[in-house]
Structure formats: C-alpha cells, structure tokens
Amino acid sequence: MDKQTVKLGLMGFGTVGTGVVRIIQAHQEDLQKQTGLGIEIKRILVQDAEKTRSIPSMNSVLTTNASDLLDDPEIDVIVEVIGGISPAREYILAALERGKHVVTANKDLMALHGGEILQKAQEKGCDVYYEASVAGGIPILRALVEGFSSDRITKMMGIVNGTTNYILTKMSQDGADYSDVLKEAQALGYAEADPTSDVEGYDAARKMAILATLGFRVPMKLEDVDVKGISGVTKEDIAYGKKLGYEVKLLGLARRDGEAIEVSVQPTMVAKSHPLASVNGVFNAVYVHGEAVGETMFYGPGAGELPTATAVVSDLVTVVKNMKLGVNGRGMVAPYKEKILKDDKQKLSKYFLRIVVADKRGVLAQITQLLADKNISLEQVLQQPYNNGEQAEIIIVTHLASKGDMDEVLQGMEELEIVSEVKSCYRVEGGEQA
Ligand SMILES: NC(=O)C1=CN([C@@H]2O[C@H](COP(=O)(O)OP(=O)(O)OC[C@H]3O[C@@H](n4cnc5c(N)ncnc54)[C@H](OP(=O)(O)O)[C@@H]3O)[C@@H](O)[C@H]2O)C=CC1
Ligand SMILES: N[C@@H](CC=O)C(=O)O
Ligand code: NA
User: Is residue 341 assigned to a domain?
Assistant: First the structure.
C-alpha cells in the first residue's frame, strides 16, 4: 500500500461525530504511530449545513450531499454516526458497494440489518466494525469476538442503556422524578433522538440482540428478545426493593441452558451483593459467564461524546491496520450455530411480587396457595398496611419459578376476590440460585 494518509468520510456531526473529530485531532500523532498512516477527515455529511458547530474549523468540509462522500474515490472509510435505519442503511450499503470500509455506532441498524450489511461487506472484501453500538466506550464486542473465542458463553447480563440507568439511579439515590431526570439525560446527550427507545427498552433490546449473536454465535433477531421498559417502575418498587436487598436495574439477560437460549430486557431486582447492582448513572456494565473462564465483568461509560467516540476511533484504527496488512473483510465470522429458543416453561427465575389485598384473615394463605400449586416456594414475605390500613400490601420474593408458571399465578391472583391489584412483578437476578 503506497498511501501516507487514509481519508475518511464522516456521516453525522452530532454528539458522537463531534467526539470522533476531537479524538482524531487530539490523538493524531498516536494514531499515526500505531497505524503507520495519517488519518484525514475529508468530508462531513450533516443535515443542516448552516447550524453553528462546536468545532468551526471543520465548516469548510461540511456537506449535505451524501454523494460527496460516497462517490469520492479518495475516501477509503465511511464512519456512520447519523443513527436510525434510513438513510444510514442505504449509505452504508452504497459505501460497501464502492469498496469503502465502514465503522458505525448504529445499533438500530446492526440489530435489524446486520446480516445484510455483513454479507455485503464480505462480498466486497470490506471491513464493518460497530464497537460503539453496544455499551458505548466499553470494548465488549471485541472481547466477545476475540477474547472469548476459545470459550462457550453461558450467560450475559448487561446494563446496556445509559439513559435508563441514569434515570433509575437518580430515582433511587435522590428520590428524583422520572420525567425531570429524563430531560437531564437528554440535555447531556445520552438519550436517543426519540427517547422512547431508551425508556421502553428497545435500545437495550437491540444491544442484547447484538451481544447474543456475537456471544452465542447464533443469528438472534430483535423479535426474539422479550422487552419491557422502565416507564412502569415506581419509587415504591425501588424503596421496597432496597428494603429486601435489591436495586432496580433495566437488565438485559442472555442465557443459554444446553443449546436453548433466552434473551430479554426488563426492569429487574438485582441483588445488592452482585457487582451489577452498584453500576450507577450513565455507566454500563456487561457480566459474561463462560464455561471455562467463569465469571467476568466489563464496566465503563455507556454513552456520551468522548467515551463513544473512543470506540469508533479504535475501530477505525483496526480498519487502517487491516488496510496496511491487506486483510480487510477477513476477520468476520458469521453466526454458525442453530438458534434454539426456550419456551416460557424453560425460562427460570426468582420473582419479586407486590400485591394489594383486602386486609382480612386468610388472605396470605390464599396467595401462597396459588404459588404452592405450581411448586413455587417463598424466599421472603413482607406484609404492610396500605391505604390508611383499609387494605394490606404483600411483597413476596420467590425461589426459582418458570415464566410460564408465574404468568399463570399472576392470572390466578387477578381473579381472586381478595386481590385489589397486582402492583408489580419483577425478575430477580444476581443472588443465590439466580
Ligand atoms: N449519543 C451517545 O452517547 C451514543 C450514540 N450512539 C449512536 O451513535 C449514533 C449517533 O448518535 P448521536 O451522535 O447521539 O446523534 P445526534 O442526533 O447528536 O447527531 C446526528 C448527526 O447526524 C446528522 N444527520 C441526521 N440525519 C441526517 C441525514 N438524513 N442526513 C445527513 N445527516 C444527518 C445530524 O445533522 P445536523 O447536525 O445537521 O442536525 C447530526 O450531525 C446513533 O446511531 C446512536 O444510537 C451510540 C452510543 C452512544
Ligand atoms: N441512548 C443510548 C446511547 C448509547 O447507546 C444510551 O442511553 O445508552
Ligand atoms: Na462498546
């Protein structure tokens, strides 16, 4: 290879794009020493060329025309940090068609169209790297693909959405109000353009689909992930959780028993003794259990300008090193295992239930009978007066139960005359047996 400089087309100059420019500018010498080549940002694609930018020195390379990047033969690598499906998908496919390598932070796209994009890259001998798409600055995809290549992963648990972890932490530590904290997370640049995907768990589900595909080497689809967000989590749930030894976290779970797999994202009571319980604020963490290695955990900032940009620029370094060695497009391994999904009777977990009942003799016995009928035993029970003593609130933590059995128990509870409301039901993870 006879070039001295790799030319880059940057698509997107928002939170992450700005970070990418800052890191390339600040670390130019280090990047050159590591790759042997200079890195030049030749064009930046934006939506609004008139907007005031925090790095005005780049104004001269801004364009609103994607073909200024895609059709420029001097541009070797496209970095896509626009987000969303369209036009990001079309731009990435067009870049690969023209033999350009791609680095992206786009989990929406990789979770939904990763198969198509990686296949096109392989056909064209191009690289596609997407480390920033999961857990921002934590090098977790690299760890799964390279670090665990010799092992068989059995379980991954992840706090993989910074916005919701920031909200839950502020609710738990400061008693803050949900909607005020969401506004703060948006102002700090953590939230997606439409924060519904953060709070309803879709962003975390996309990340878990990517983690499960790479970790279990099966072609997981987004629709294979059970999803529930944090909009129903209340301060009362958080307070009762604390009292019984748990923190509420939006937890992604990917678990393999034998060859059968389950992947979910839901608010979960995480035992305080587990390291995931103390992952706070915008921080993310991914716990990985491998058959040979045992327990490992990866921790770091999951969102924000510079942390996310480090993952993007490190991917860029890999692409440039591959260019020097002439080995682009050879590092990818397509998922090669058959996908076998668990049914609800195979999904085992402990549960935390909060139920409002009539304050009468024998009520607790009726509730516990429903659980006993399914062979579900109890680990903790707490009964408190509710509604000025007119009703009672029962909080139960069970031992292991299947999701199928628990769904039937919950339906049975709703039908009992003495039950006013099943207020909440959470999975419990991180303690003994979980
Ligand atoms: N923010 C974070 O902490 C993290 C973000 N990500 C992912 O990184 C990606 C970028 O996120 P982020 O930087 O926060 O997003 P922003 O909304 O801050 O920036 C988006 C950029 O893309 C440009 N853009 C949007 N639509 C178009 C279009 N149709 N054509 C051309 N340019 C367009 C915008 O232009 P203009 O400036 O003119 O409006 C803006 O510069 C997303 O995929 C996100 O999920 C991943 C990890 C963390
Ligand atoms: N909105 C996302 C950004 C990073 O992926 C989050 O909050 O984690
Ligand atoms: Na990452």
Answer: no
Residue 16 labelled as part of a binding site: yes
Same domain membership, residue 172 and residue 116? no
| Spatial separation of the C-alpha atoms in residues 374 and 103, rounded to whole Å | 50
207 is catalytic: yes
Domain count, the chain: 3
At 434 the pLDDT is 42
| Domain around 391 | 346-429
User: Which residue of the set 207, 228, 249, 342 is catalytic?
Assistant: 207
- Is 201 among the annotated ligand-binding positions? no
Distances 375 to 58, 144, 160, 353, 399 between C-alpha atoms, Å: 65, 37, 34, 16, 10
Report field, pTM of the whole predicted structure over 0.80? yes
Task: Say if strands 38-45 and 246-257 run parallel, antiparallel, or are unpaired.
Answer: unpaired
ipTM over 0.90: yes
CA–centroid distance, residue 248 to ligand 3 (Å)? 23
- Strands 5-11 and 75-80, sheet pairing: parallel
